[in-house]
């Protein structure tokens, strides 16, 4: 009920939506369209594995930093935080493109991969945070629109990059491309969350912690948030005019009295109903006052006199005790001028050491201790050790930051990794994510280079048209996004399985293609399968591992999948420089995807048996 109300009442915020779509068109397309740059690198006699390693390093850095930047987006976000961090990421991407224009070809994978991966990861974290906080009721539709923007960028940027290289040359085209990417700065400046909208606690990314905090902070009590905790009332707003309902009304002071907000005043309540009574004629009856007799007055006077006598006797005893003590003090005092000259006066007398007193240490004794040889040696050793181990406070702060960094690495990578490796559901999820990354950095990047090896050779303009066809088929799958938004999460695994199977078929076709027609068919099939995998893999994994385990397994999935992708690219780098090497690598990728498809096919069959067939059998057994 609440979800439908929010979905119909929330606004689309069109400027923010257009900025998010523009960022998804421009930034990821630098990796999707890198195959065009790979073809031109081959013309400059640069090894293919060098060009193929650039998107791999990009994705590796992106996955390793996404978990940190996601937490930074949650802690540094706000009216300005999202835009500042996204602007910093955009500066990294633009700087990587500008540096690539002036460095050798062999260094470009490192510069563009590292700086571009860092910048894109930082921007992606801010965009995801803003999208979640703004479009929480339409999250499926908005993600489909973002993927559609990436497909549009995949269709446009190959033509843009080829036009820049033909007009300005290979090196200077990076400068113009950096200027084009810099035009997304106005879109970044629109990344802002509307803080005036009060969102329910259930829509927080940390809903469990948010609900607990709301209980202890007395929030959410009047927003359909049911709990067994009693609400805490502000007693400063207590109202005495109506004793029956004094906790749900605001104070209504008369105009004769003016109260300052900073002054806390005490309000005296009027007489209670027990003290003010009326007879049947409406006349107020004053409370009864007990009568006093003369005997009671005499008894009270006698009691007061006896108490005063006791107090006077106690005071006299105290005065006598003080007088005796003063006499003792006066008698024990000796005048110094009345002493004979022969008696030497000692400033410091020796006191016997007992359990009650200790002999005082004089300044002379303290000076002897400080000037002793042993104390000097101990102080010299302590100062030398302090200079060696703690030379300054700066070294101490560096050590503290290093310790904090090591604990952060432990909490971000090592501890989630050990927890994830003990869960069997982690491994199929890892394979599905690896399938999506390999299709991005190997299959999609290799399209232009494979097109140049066809017989007859496909021109670069035709190859760009086929990559546009790849993005168009991707968009064709995204037309089913409204249907996917209404589909239960448990069914996404079947759509992701279909996407992996179709991608496997597309990779086999591309590996065996030798003419224009077969290559075109492979592009169409691969684009449709990639659209299904990229849109459904995350939701399928979330439902597979469970909502409680997904936050714990998310960062290990990203980091280990990026590492697996790097290992896979290093393995195929030994064969890509040979004749039809990229098609051989595509064949190896197709075999790997077929293994992943078989594993997820078994998982899907098991889920169908558990959720459908087994429940039907149990129902029949109960009926008979």
Automatic annotation (TrEMBL):
Coiled-coil ranges from the UniProt annotation: none
Keyword Transmembrane helix: yes
Keywords: Membrane, Transmembrane, Transmembrane helix
This protein's record includes keyword Disulfide bond: no
TM segment ranges: 12-34, 46-64, 84-105, 111-132, 144-165, 171-191, 430-451, 463-485, 492-513, 519-537, 557-576, 582-610
GO molecular function annotation: monocarboxylic acid transmembrane transporter activity
Protein name: Monocarboxylate transporter
Organism: Spodoptera littoralis
């Amino acid at each position: 009920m609440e979800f439908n109300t929010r979905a119909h009442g929330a606004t689309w915020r069109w400027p923010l939506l257009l900025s998010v779509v523009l960022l998804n068109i421009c930034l990821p397309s630098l990796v999707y369209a890198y195959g065009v740059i790979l073809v031109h690198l081959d013309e400059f006699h640069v090894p293919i594995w060098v060009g193929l390693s650039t998107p791999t390093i990009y994705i590796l850095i992106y996955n390793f930093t996404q978990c940190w930047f996601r937490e930074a987006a949650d802690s540094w976000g706000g009216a300005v935080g999202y835009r500042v961090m996204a602007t910093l990421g955009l500066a990294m991407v633009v700087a990587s493109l500008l540096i690539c224009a002036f460095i050798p070809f062999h260094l470009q994978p490192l510069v563009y991969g590292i700086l571009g991966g860092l910048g894109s990861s930082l921007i992606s974290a801010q965009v995801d945070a803003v999208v979640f906080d703004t479009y929480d009721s339409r999250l499926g539709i908005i993600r489909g629109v973002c993927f559609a923007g990436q497909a549009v960028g995949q269709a446009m940027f190959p033509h843009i990059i080829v036009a820049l290289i033909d007009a300005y040359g290979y090196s200077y085209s990076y400068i113009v491309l950096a200027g084009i990417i810099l035009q997304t700065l106005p879109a970044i400046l629109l990344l802002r969350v509307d803080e005036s909208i009060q969102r329910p606690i259930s829509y927080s990314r940390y809903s469990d912690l948010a609900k607990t905090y709301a209980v202890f902070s007395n929030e959410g009590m009047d927003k359909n948030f049911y709990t067994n905790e009693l609400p805490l009332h502000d007693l400063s707003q207590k109202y005495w005019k109506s004793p029956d309902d004094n906790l749900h009304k605001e104070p209504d002071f008369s105009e004769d009295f003016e109260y300052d907000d900073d002054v806390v005043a005490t309000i005296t309540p009027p007489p209670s109903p027990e003290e003010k009574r009326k007879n049947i004629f409406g006349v107020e009856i004053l409370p009864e006052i007990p009568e006093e007799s003369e005997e009671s007055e005499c008894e009270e006077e006698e009691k007061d006199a006896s108490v005063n006598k006791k107090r006077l006797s106690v005071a006299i005893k105290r005065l006598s005790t003080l007088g005796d003590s003063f006499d003792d003090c006066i008698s024990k005092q000796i005048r110094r001028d009345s002493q004979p000259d022969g008696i030497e006066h000692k400033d410091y007398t020796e006191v016997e050491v007992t359990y009650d007193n200790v002999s005082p240490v004089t300044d002379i004794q303290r000076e002897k201790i400080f000037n002793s040889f042993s104390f000097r040696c101990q102080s010299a050793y302590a100062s030398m050790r302090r200079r060696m181990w703690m030379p300054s406070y700066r070294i101490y702060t560096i050590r503290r930051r290093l310790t904090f960094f090591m604990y952060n690495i432990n909490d971000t990578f090592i501890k989630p990794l050990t927890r994830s490796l003990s869960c069997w559901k982690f491994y199929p999820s890892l394979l599905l994510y690896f399938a999506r990354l390999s299709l991005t950095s190997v299959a999609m990047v290799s399209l232009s280079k494979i097109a140049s090896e066809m017989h007859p050779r496909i021109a670069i303009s035709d190859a760009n048209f086929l990559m546009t066809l790849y993005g168009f088929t991707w968009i064709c799958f995204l037309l089913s996004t409204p249907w996917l938004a209404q589909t239960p999460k448990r069914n996404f695994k079947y759509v992701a399985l279909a996407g992996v199977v179709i991608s496997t078929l597309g990779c086999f076709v591309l590996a065996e293609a030798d003419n224009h027609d077969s290559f075109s068919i492979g592009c169409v099939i691969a684009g449709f399968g990639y659209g299904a995998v990229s849109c459904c893999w995350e939701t399928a994994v979330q439902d597979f591992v469970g909502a409680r385990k997904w936050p714990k397994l998310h960062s290990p999935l990203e980091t280990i999948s990026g590492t697996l992708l790097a290992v896979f690219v290093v393995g195929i780098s030994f064969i890509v420089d040979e004749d039809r090497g990229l098609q051989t690598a595509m064949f190896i990728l197709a075999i790997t995807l077929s293994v992943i498809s078989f594993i997820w096919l078994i998982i899907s069959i098991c889920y169908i048996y558990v959720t459908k067939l087994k429940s039907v059998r149990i129902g029949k057994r109960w009926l008979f």
